[in-house]
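To assess whether ligand presence alters the predicted conformation, the chain was also submitted together with magnesium ion. Input:
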Amino acid sequence: MAKAKTTAFFCKECGNEYSKWFGQCPSCKSWNTLVEQPAQTKKSTSTRGIVSAINTDAKIVPLKSIDLEEKDRISTDMKELDRVLGGGIVQGSLCLLGGDPGIGKSTLLLQMCYNLANKNIKVLYISGEESLKQIKLRADRIGECKGELNVLCETNLNNIENVLTEHKPELVIIDSIQTMFKEEVNAAPGSISQVRESTQTLLQLAKGLNISIFIVGHVTKEGVVAGPRMLEHMVDTVLYFEGDRYASYRLLRGVKNRFGSTNEIGVFEMQEKGLVEVPNPSEYMLNGRPEDSSGSVVVCLMEGTRPLMVEIQALVCDSNFGMARRTAAGMDYNRVNLLMAVLEKRAGIHLSGSDAYVNIAGGIKVNEPALDLGVVLALVSSFKNKAIDSKTVIFGEVGLSGEVRAVSQVQQRINEAIKLGFENVILPMVCLKNIKNSDRINLIAVGNVNDAIKLL
Ligand code: TYD
Ligand code: MG
Protein backbone atom coordinates (compact mmCIF):
# COMPACT_ATOMS: atom_id res chain seq x y z
CA MET A 1 0.00 0.00 0.00
CA ALA A 2 1.27 3.47 -0.89
CA LYS A 3 2.33 5.65 2.01
CA ALA A 4 -0.20 8.39 2.79
CA LYS A 5 1.11 11.85 1.90
CA THR A 6 1.85 14.01 4.92
CA THR A 7 3.22 17.11 3.28
CA ALA A 8 2.06 19.29 0.42
CA PHE A 9 3.26 22.39 -1.40
CA PHE A 10 1.50 25.67 -0.79
CA CYS A 11 1.75 28.87 -2.75
CA LYS A 12 2.57 31.76 -0.41
CA GLU A 13 0.73 34.17 -2.67
CA CYS A 14 -2.57 32.54 -3.48
CA GLY A 15 -2.72 29.74 -0.95
CA ASN A 16 -3.29 26.99 -3.50
CA GLU A 17 -2.13 23.47 -2.64
CA TYR A 18 -0.15 21.13 -4.93
CA SER A 19 1.21 17.63 -4.52
CA LYS A 20 4.55 18.53 -6.14
CA TRP A 21 6.83 21.54 -6.37
CA PHE A 22 6.69 24.06 -9.21
CA GLY A 23 8.99 26.98 -9.91
CA GLN A 24 6.01 29.03 -10.93
CA CYS A 25 2.62 28.67 -9.27
CA PRO A 26 0.28 27.24 -11.93
CA SER A 27 -2.58 29.25 -10.51
CA CYS A 28 -1.36 32.77 -9.75
CA LYS A 29 1.79 32.62 -11.94
CA SER A 30 4.09 34.05 -9.28
CA TRP A 31 7.64 32.67 -9.18
CA ASN A 32 9.31 30.82 -6.35
CA THR A 33 6.40 31.03 -3.94
CA LEU A 34 5.76 27.32 -3.29
CA VAL A 35 6.77 26.04 0.14
CA GLU A 36 6.53 22.54 1.56
CA GLN A 37 4.32 22.24 4.61
CA PRO A 38 2.35 19.60 6.47
CA ALA A 39 -0.80 18.87 4.49
CA GLN A 40 -3.87 20.59 5.88
CA THR A 41 -6.11 18.13 7.61
CA LYS A 42 -8.67 20.65 8.74
CA LYS A 43 -10.72 21.92 5.88
CA SER A 44 -10.19 25.59 5.16
CA THR A 45 -12.92 27.78 6.58
CA SER A 46 -13.21 29.77 3.40
CA THR A 47 -15.52 27.25 1.78
CA ARG A 48 -18.13 27.91 4.44
CA GLY A 49 -20.74 30.41 3.41
CA ILE A 50 -22.91 32.90 5.14
CA VAL A 51 -25.45 30.32 6.31
CA SER A 52 -22.96 28.31 8.32
CA ALA A 53 -21.77 31.62 9.75
CA ILE A 54 -25.21 32.25 11.23
CA ASN A 55 -25.24 28.64 12.33
CA THR A 56 -28.91 27.82 11.88
CA ASP A 57 -30.28 24.34 12.38
CA ALA A 58 -31.69 22.87 9.21
CA LYS A 59 -35.23 24.11 9.66
CA ILE A 60 -37.75 25.19 7.05
CA VAL A 61 -39.64 28.45 7.59
CA PRO A 62 -42.35 29.99 5.42
CA LEU A 63 -41.16 33.21 3.78
CA LYS A 64 -44.32 35.00 4.94
CA SER A 65 -43.54 34.37 8.58
CA ILE A 66 -40.18 36.20 8.52
CA ASP A 67 -40.76 39.73 9.66
CA LEU A 68 -38.51 42.66 9.06
CA GLU A 69 -38.35 45.62 11.35
CA GLU A 70 -37.32 48.96 10.02
CA LYS A 71 -35.20 49.55 13.08
CA ASP A 72 -32.80 47.00 11.67
CA ARG A 73 -31.39 49.87 9.65
CA ILE A 74 -29.32 52.52 11.37
CA SER A 75 -29.18 55.92 9.73
CA THR A 76 -25.69 57.39 9.48
CA ASP A 77 -27.04 60.97 9.50
CA MET A 78 -25.25 61.49 6.20
CA LYS A 79 -27.91 61.53 3.51
CA GLU A 80 -25.48 60.79 0.70
CA LEU A 81 -24.08 57.74 2.48
CA ASP A 82 -27.49 56.48 3.55
CA ARG A 83 -28.75 56.64 0.01
CA VAL A 84 -25.90 54.53 -1.34
CA LEU A 85 -26.35 52.02 1.47
CA GLY A 86 -30.04 51.74 0.56
CA GLY A 87 -31.43 53.65 3.54
CA GLY A 88 -28.91 53.10 6.30
CA ILE A 89 -26.65 50.45 7.77
CA VAL A 90 -28.24 47.01 8.06
CA GLN A 91 -27.46 45.35 11.37
CA GLY A 92 -25.12 42.41 11.04
CA SER A 93 -24.03 43.34 7.54
CA LEU A 94 -20.55 43.25 6.11
CA CYS A 95 -19.63 46.16 3.87
CA LEU A 96 -16.50 46.64 1.80
CA LEU A 97 -15.29 50.15 0.95
CA GLY A 98 -12.67 50.35 -1.78
CA GLY A 99 -10.82 53.31 -3.22
CA ASP A 100 -7.51 54.80 -4.23
CA PRO A 101 -5.05 55.73 -1.49
CA GLY A 102 -5.68 59.16 -0.04
CA ILE A 103 -9.15 59.47 -1.48
CA GLY A 104 -10.72 59.75 1.96
CA LYS A 105 -11.91 56.28 2.97
CA SER A 106 -10.69 56.56 6.53
CA THR A 107 -12.08 60.08 6.79
CA LEU A 108 -15.53 59.02 5.55
CA LEU A 109 -15.75 56.10 7.96
CA LEU A 110 -14.46 58.12 10.89
CA GLN A 111 -17.08 60.79 10.23
CA MET A 112 -19.72 58.07 10.08
CA CYS A 113 -18.45 56.75 13.44
CA TYR A 114 -18.77 60.26 14.89
CA ASN A 115 -22.41 60.47 13.87
CA LEU A 116 -23.24 57.04 15.22
CA ALA A 117 -21.34 57.53 18.47
CA ASN A 118 -23.31 60.73 18.98
CA LYS A 119 -26.45 58.60 18.83
CA ASN A 120 -25.10 56.38 21.62
CA ILE A 121 -24.30 53.48 19.34
CA LYS A 122 -21.30 51.44 20.46
CA VAL A 123 -18.67 51.97 17.78
CA LEU A 124 -15.18 50.51 17.54
CA TYR A 125 -12.66 51.77 14.98
CA ILE A 126 -9.87 49.26 14.41
CA SER A 127 -6.87 50.50 12.49
CA GLY A 128 -4.00 48.41 11.24
CA GLU A 129 -2.48 51.27 9.29
CA GLU A 130 -2.25 54.18 11.65
CA SER A 131 -1.15 54.68 15.22
CA LEU A 132 -3.54 55.99 17.86
CA LYS A 133 -1.87 59.40 17.58
CA GLN A 134 -2.40 59.54 13.83
CA ILE A 135 -6.05 58.64 14.25
CA LYS A 136 -6.39 61.36 16.86
CA LEU A 137 -4.78 63.90 14.52
CA ARG A 138 -7.30 63.12 11.81
CA ALA A 139 -10.16 63.12 14.29
CA ASP A 140 -9.13 66.57 15.52
CA ARG A 141 -9.30 67.89 11.99
CA ILE A 142 -12.84 66.63 11.61
CA GLY A 143 -13.98 68.10 14.90
CA GLU A 144 -14.96 67.03 18.34
CA CYS A 145 -16.91 63.84 18.98
CA LYS A 146 -19.42 64.17 21.79
CA GLY A 147 -20.31 60.50 21.96
CA GLU A 148 -18.09 57.63 23.01
CA LEU A 149 -15.97 56.37 20.17
CA ASN A 150 -13.45 53.63 20.88
CA VAL A 151 -10.34 52.99 18.83
CA LEU A 152 -7.99 50.05 18.67
CA CYS A 153 -4.71 49.51 16.84
CA GLU A 154 -4.49 45.85 16.01
CA THR A 155 -3.77 43.63 13.04
CA ASN A 156 -4.09 40.16 14.54
CA LEU A 157 -7.58 38.90 13.84
CA ASN A 158 -7.54 36.42 16.69
CA ASN A 159 -7.13 39.30 19.13
CA ILE A 160 -9.79 41.29 17.32
CA GLU A 161 -12.13 38.33 17.57
CA ASN A 162 -11.63 38.22 21.35
CA VAL A 163 -12.21 41.95 21.70
CA LEU A 164 -15.40 41.80 19.67
CA THR A 165 -16.80 38.85 21.58
CA GLU A 166 -16.04 40.57 24.85
CA HIS A 167 -17.17 44.13 24.11
CA LYS A 168 -19.95 43.42 21.59
CA PRO A 169 -19.88 46.75 19.74
CA GLU A 170 -22.70 47.45 17.31
CA LEU A 171 -20.49 48.82 14.57
CA VAL A 172 -16.88 47.99 13.74
CA ILE A 173 -14.54 49.52 11.19
CA ILE A 174 -11.60 47.48 9.92
CA ASP A 175 -9.02 49.77 8.30
CA SER A 176 -7.79 47.94 6.19
CA ILE A 177 -8.30 44.30 5.32
CA GLN A 178 -4.85 44.17 3.66
CA THR A 179 -3.14 44.75 7.01
CA MET A 180 -5.06 42.05 8.90
CA PHE A 181 -3.73 38.55 9.39
CA LYS A 182 -4.57 35.24 10.99
CA GLU A 183 -1.77 33.31 12.68
CA GLU A 184 -2.95 30.00 11.27
CA VAL A 185 -2.52 31.12 7.70
CA ASN A 186 1.06 30.95 6.55
CA ALA A 187 1.18 33.94 4.23
CA ALA A 188 1.99 37.62 4.44
CA PRO A 189 -0.79 40.09 5.32
CA GLY A 190 -2.39 41.34 2.15
CA SER A 191 -1.82 38.08 0.29
CA ILE A 192 -4.80 36.39 -1.24
CA SER A 193 -5.14 33.61 1.29
CA GLN A 194 -4.82 36.01 4.26
CA VAL A 195 -7.40 38.39 2.84
CA ARG A 196 -9.77 35.52 2.12
CA GLU A 197 -9.45 33.93 5.54
CA SER A 198 -9.63 37.27 7.36
CA THR A 199 -12.79 38.25 5.54
CA GLN A 200 -14.30 34.88 6.31
CA THR A 201 -13.61 35.40 10.02
CA LEU A 202 -15.13 38.88 9.91
CA LEU A 203 -18.17 37.50 8.08
CA GLN A 204 -18.71 34.98 10.82
CA LEU A 205 -18.31 37.63 13.50
CA ALA A 206 -20.76 39.95 11.75
CA LYS A 207 -23.43 37.31 11.34
CA GLY A 208 -22.80 35.48 14.57
CA LEU A 209 -22.66 38.50 16.89
CA ASN A 210 -24.97 40.71 14.77
CA ILE A 211 -22.33 43.43 14.39
CA SER A 212 -22.23 45.64 11.32
CA ILE A 213 -18.69 45.64 10.00
CA PHE A 214 -17.17 48.04 7.47
CA ILE A 215 -13.97 46.85 5.82
CA VAL A 216 -11.62 49.19 4.00
CA GLY A 217 -9.98 47.60 0.97
CA HIS A 218 -7.10 48.91 -1.08
CA VAL A 219 -7.48 48.86 -4.82
CA THR A 220 -5.08 47.66 -7.46
CA LYS A 221 -3.86 49.62 -10.48
CA GLU A 222 -6.88 48.34 -12.41
CA GLY A 223 -9.17 49.87 -9.80
CA VAL A 224 -10.57 46.73 -8.20
CA VAL A 225 -10.15 45.77 -4.56
CA ALA A 226 -6.81 44.01 -4.06
CA GLY A 227 -7.17 40.39 -3.07
CA PRO A 228 -9.30 37.59 -4.40
CA ARG A 229 -12.29 38.46 -6.50
CA MET A 230 -14.12 36.21 -4.06
CA LEU A 231 -13.93 39.00 -1.50
CA GLU A 232 -16.68 40.85 -3.30
CA HIS A 233 -18.85 37.73 -3.29
CA MET A 234 -18.43 37.21 0.42
CA VAL A 235 -19.53 40.63 1.61
CA ASP A 236 -23.07 42.06 1.53
CA THR A 237 -22.24 45.47 0.13
CA VAL A 238 -19.39 46.76 -1.99
CA LEU A 239 -18.87 50.49 -2.23
CA TYR A 240 -16.23 52.38 -4.17
CA PHE A 241 -15.07 55.81 -3.23
CA GLU A 242 -13.70 57.55 -6.27
CA GLY A 243 -12.79 60.91 -7.66
CA ASP A 244 -9.98 62.83 -9.13
CA ARG A 245 -7.18 63.38 -6.66
CA TYR A 246 -6.85 66.94 -7.84
CA ALA A 247 -10.54 67.77 -7.78
CA SER A 248 -12.12 68.15 -4.40
CA TYR A 249 -15.35 66.26 -5.01
CA ARG A 250 -15.64 62.52 -4.30
CA LEU A 251 -18.22 60.05 -5.55
CA LEU A 252 -19.40 57.11 -3.49
CA ARG A 253 -20.77 54.42 -5.72
CA GLY A 254 -22.41 51.11 -4.81
CA VAL A 255 -21.41 48.18 -7.03
CA LYS A 256 -23.07 45.46 -5.01
CA ASN A 257 -25.78 45.75 -2.40
CA ARG A 258 -27.79 42.89 -1.00
CA PHE A 259 -30.11 45.38 0.71
CA GLY A 260 -30.70 48.07 -1.87
CA SER A 261 -30.17 49.47 -5.32
CA THR A 262 -26.65 49.74 -6.71
CA ASN A 263 -27.12 52.60 -9.06
CA GLU A 264 -27.19 55.36 -6.49
CA ILE A 265 -24.26 57.66 -5.94
CA GLY A 266 -23.33 59.91 -3.09
CA VAL A 267 -21.41 63.12 -3.72
CA PHE A 268 -19.02 64.61 -1.19
CA GLU A 269 -16.50 67.37 -1.19
CA MET A 270 -13.20 67.10 0.66
CA GLN A 271 -12.69 70.26 2.64
CA GLU A 272 -10.42 71.52 5.34
CA LYS A 273 -12.51 69.85 8.02
CA GLY A 274 -13.30 66.55 6.41
CA LEU A 275 -15.95 65.50 3.92
CA VAL A 276 -19.00 67.65 3.31
CA GLU A 277 -22.09 66.37 1.51
CA VAL A 278 -23.01 67.94 -1.81
CA PRO A 279 -26.81 67.84 -2.01
CA ASN A 280 -27.10 69.37 -5.50
CA PRO A 281 -24.15 68.13 -7.52
CA SER A 282 -25.33 69.63 -10.82
CA GLU A 283 -24.78 73.18 -9.65
CA TYR A 284 -21.41 72.11 -8.33
CA MET A 285 -20.36 70.49 -11.61
CA LEU A 286 -21.40 73.46 -13.72
CA ASN A 287 -19.53 75.98 -11.60
CA GLY A 288 -17.22 78.19 -13.65
CA ARG A 289 -18.66 77.21 -17.03
CA PRO A 290 -17.78 79.57 -19.87
CA GLU A 291 -20.78 81.46 -21.32
CA ASP A 292 -21.41 81.27 -25.05
CA SER A 293 -18.14 79.70 -25.99
CA SER A 294 -17.97 77.25 -28.89
CA GLY A 295 -17.44 73.59 -28.12
CA SER A 296 -19.04 73.74 -24.69
CA VAL A 297 -22.39 72.06 -24.03
CA VAL A 298 -24.31 70.88 -20.98
CA VAL A 299 -25.65 67.33 -20.90
CA CYS A 300 -27.94 65.68 -18.41
CA LEU A 301 -26.92 62.25 -17.15
CA MET A 302 -28.64 59.96 -14.72
CA GLU A 303 -26.69 58.61 -11.78
CA GLY A 304 -29.13 56.10 -10.41
CA THR A 305 -32.34 57.97 -9.82
CA ARG A 306 -30.59 61.31 -9.66
CA PRO A 307 -30.03 63.60 -12.64
CA LEU A 308 -26.60 65.13 -12.93
CA MET A 309 -25.66 67.98 -15.25
CA VAL A 310 -22.13 68.02 -16.59
CA GLU A 311 -20.32 70.14 -19.10
CA ILE A 312 -18.72 68.56 -22.16
CA GLN A 313 -15.98 70.50 -23.87
CA ALA A 314 -14.66 69.74 -27.33
CA LEU A 315 -11.86 71.34 -29.24
CA VAL A 316 -11.49 70.58 -32.94
CA CYS A 317 -8.57 72.11 -34.80
CA ASP A 318 -6.57 71.48 -37.96
CA SER A 319 -4.03 68.73 -37.69
CA ASN A 320 -0.45 69.60 -38.51
CA PHE A 321 0.70 66.09 -39.15
CA GLY A 322 -0.61 63.34 -41.36
CA MET A 323 -2.31 61.58 -38.53
CA ALA A 324 -5.02 63.38 -36.58
CA ARG A 325 -4.85 63.25 -32.80
CA ARG A 326 -7.86 62.39 -30.70
CA THR A 327 -8.12 62.33 -26.95
CA ALA A 328 -11.01 61.80 -24.59
CA ALA A 329 -10.86 62.61 -20.89
CA GLY A 330 -13.67 61.39 -18.67
CA MET A 331 -15.37 59.29 -21.31
CA ASP A 332 -14.65 56.31 -23.54
CA TYR A 333 -12.08 57.13 -26.23
CA ASN A 334 -13.57 54.61 -28.65
CA ARG A 335 -17.00 56.15 -28.26
CA VAL A 336 -15.59 59.52 -29.33
CA ASN A 337 -14.00 57.93 -32.40
CA LEU A 338 -17.28 56.22 -33.24
CA LEU A 339 -19.27 59.43 -32.95
CA MET A 340 -16.76 61.23 -35.15
CA ALA A 341 -17.12 58.48 -37.76
CA VAL A 342 -20.91 58.89 -37.63
CA LEU A 343 -20.51 62.65 -38.19
CA GLU A 344 -18.16 62.04 -41.11
CA LYS A 345 -20.39 59.52 -42.84
CA ARG A 346 -23.95 60.58 -41.95
CA ALA A 347 -23.64 64.33 -41.68
CA GLY A 348 -20.84 64.96 -44.15
CA ILE A 349 -18.69 66.79 -41.63
CA HIS A 350 -15.07 66.13 -42.53
CA LEU A 351 -13.17 65.64 -39.34
CA SER A 352 -10.52 63.27 -40.62
CA GLY A 353 -7.98 66.07 -41.02
CA SER A 354 -8.68 67.58 -37.63
CA ASP A 355 -7.38 66.94 -34.16
CA ALA A 356 -10.17 66.51 -31.64
CA TYR A 357 -10.01 66.74 -27.87
CA VAL A 358 -13.05 65.93 -25.76
CA ASN A 359 -13.16 66.57 -22.05
CA ILE A 360 -15.79 66.18 -19.36
CA ALA A 361 -15.25 69.16 -17.09
CA GLY A 362 -14.69 68.57 -13.40
CA GLY A 363 -12.73 65.34 -13.74
CA ILE A 364 -15.81 63.12 -13.53
CA LYS A 365 -15.93 59.84 -15.50
CA VAL A 366 -19.14 58.94 -17.31
CA ASN A 367 -20.17 56.34 -19.82
CA GLU A 368 -23.89 56.75 -20.28
CA PRO A 369 -25.13 56.61 -23.90
CA ALA A 370 -27.25 59.73 -23.28
CA LEU A 371 -23.98 61.64 -23.52
CA ASP A 372 -23.65 60.96 -27.28
CA LEU A 373 -25.75 63.79 -28.64
CA GLY A 374 -23.95 66.25 -26.41
CA VAL A 375 -20.54 65.06 -27.64
CA VAL A 376 -21.69 65.32 -31.27
CA LEU A 377 -22.96 68.87 -30.80
CA ALA A 378 -19.87 69.93 -28.88
CA LEU A 379 -17.64 68.63 -31.69
CA VAL A 380 -19.67 70.33 -34.41
CA SER A 381 -19.94 73.52 -32.39
CA SER A 382 -16.17 73.67 -32.06
CA PHE A 383 -15.62 72.66 -35.70
CA LYS A 384 -17.92 75.41 -36.99
CA ASN A 385 -16.87 77.79 -34.23
CA LYS A 386 -20.49 78.48 -33.36
CA ALA A 387 -21.56 78.53 -29.75
CA ILE A 388 -24.65 76.77 -28.45
CA ASP A 389 -26.88 78.90 -26.25
CA SER A 390 -25.61 78.38 -22.72
CA LYS A 391 -29.13 77.88 -21.37
CA THR A 392 -29.51 74.63 -23.34
CA VAL A 393 -29.37 71.07 -22.03
CA ILE A 394 -28.78 68.13 -24.35
CA PHE A 395 -29.32 64.40 -24.03
CA GLY A 396 -29.82 61.51 -26.45
CA GLU A 397 -28.08 58.40 -27.71
CA VAL A 398 -26.66 58.41 -31.24
CA GLY A 399 -26.82 55.25 -33.35
CA LEU A 400 -24.54 54.23 -36.19
CA SER A 401 -27.05 55.39 -38.81
CA GLY A 402 -26.97 58.85 -37.30
CA GLU A 403 -30.38 58.44 -35.67
CA VAL A 404 -31.00 59.92 -32.23
CA ARG A 405 -32.40 57.24 -29.97
CA ALA A 406 -34.46 57.30 -26.83
CA VAL A 407 -32.98 57.47 -23.34
CA SER A 408 -34.55 56.57 -20.02
CA GLN A 409 -36.02 58.83 -17.30
CA VAL A 410 -36.69 61.77 -19.60
CA GLN A 411 -39.05 63.48 -17.18
CA GLN A 412 -36.49 63.60 -14.37
CA ARG A 413 -33.90 65.09 -16.68
CA ILE A 414 -36.33 67.78 -17.84
CA ASN A 415 -37.37 68.58 -14.27
CA GLU A 416 -33.75 69.04 -13.30
CA ALA A 417 -33.20 71.37 -16.27
CA ILE A 418 -36.22 73.45 -15.20
CA LYS A 419 -35.01 73.50 -11.62
CA LEU A 420 -31.59 74.81 -12.61
CA GLY A 421 -33.06 77.54 -14.80
CA PHE A 422 -32.25 76.17 -18.25
CA GLU A 423 -34.49 77.39 -21.09
CA ASN A 424 -34.06 74.83 -23.88
CA VAL A 425 -33.74 71.07 -24.01
CA ILE A 426 -32.52 69.22 -27.10
CA LEU A 427 -33.86 65.68 -26.83
CA PRO A 428 -34.64 62.65 -29.01
CA MET A 429 -37.88 62.89 -31.04
CA VAL A 430 -39.06 59.54 -29.71
CA CYS A 431 -38.98 60.81 -26.12
CA LEU A 432 -41.43 63.60 -26.79
CA LYS A 433 -44.62 61.90 -25.68
CA ASN A 434 -45.93 61.93 -22.10
CA ILE A 435 -43.83 64.85 -20.95
CA LYS A 436 -45.33 67.00 -18.22
CA ASN A 437 -44.28 70.60 -17.53
CA SER A 438 -43.53 70.99 -21.24
CA ASP A 439 -44.88 74.54 -21.12
CA ARG A 440 -42.17 75.62 -18.69
CA ILE A 441 -39.25 74.85 -20.96
CA ASN A 442 -38.63 74.94 -24.69
CA LEU A 443 -38.37 71.35 -25.97
CA ILE A 444 -36.43 70.87 -29.23
CA ALA A 445 -36.89 67.33 -30.55
CA VAL A 446 -34.42 65.91 -33.06
CA GLY A 447 -34.70 62.67 -35.06
CA ASN A 448 -31.12 62.39 -36.30
CA VAL A 449 -27.77 64.13 -36.10
CA ASN A 450 -28.50 66.26 -39.16
CA ASP A 451 -31.53 67.82 -37.42
CA ALA A 452 -29.36 68.54 -34.42
CA ILE A 453 -26.57 70.12 -36.46
CA LYS A 454 -29.06 72.40 -38.23
CA LEU A 455 -29.79 73.96 -34.83
CA LEU A 456 -26.32 75.48 -34.78
P1 TYD B 1 -7.75 59.48 4.14
O1 TYD B 1 -9.11 59.35 4.74
O2 TYD B 1 -6.58 59.25 5.00
O3 TYD B 1 -7.62 58.58 2.84
P2 TYD B 1 -7.60 56.99 2.69
O4 TYD B 1 -7.96 56.39 3.98
O5 TYD B 1 -8.59 56.71 1.60
O6 TYD B 1 -6.22 56.65 2.25
O7 TYD B 1 -7.72 60.94 3.50
C1 TYD B 1 -6.54 61.50 3.23
C2 TYD B 1 -6.64 62.75 2.43
O8 TYD B 1 -7.70 63.60 2.74
C3 TYD B 1 -5.39 63.51 2.74
O9 TYD B 1 -4.67 63.66 1.54
C4 TYD B 1 -5.80 64.80 3.32
C5 TYD B 1 -7.23 64.92 2.99
N1 TYD B 1 -8.01 65.50 4.09
C6 TYD B 1 -8.52 66.79 3.96
O10 TYD B 1 -8.34 67.45 2.95
N2 TYD B 1 -9.26 67.31 4.99
C7 TYD B 1 -9.51 66.62 6.13
O11 TYD B 1 -10.18 67.13 7.03
C8 TYD B 1 -8.96 65.31 6.26
C9 TYD B 1 -9.17 64.50 7.51
C10 TYD B 1 -8.23 64.78 5.22
MG1 MG C 1 -6.80 55.23 5.30
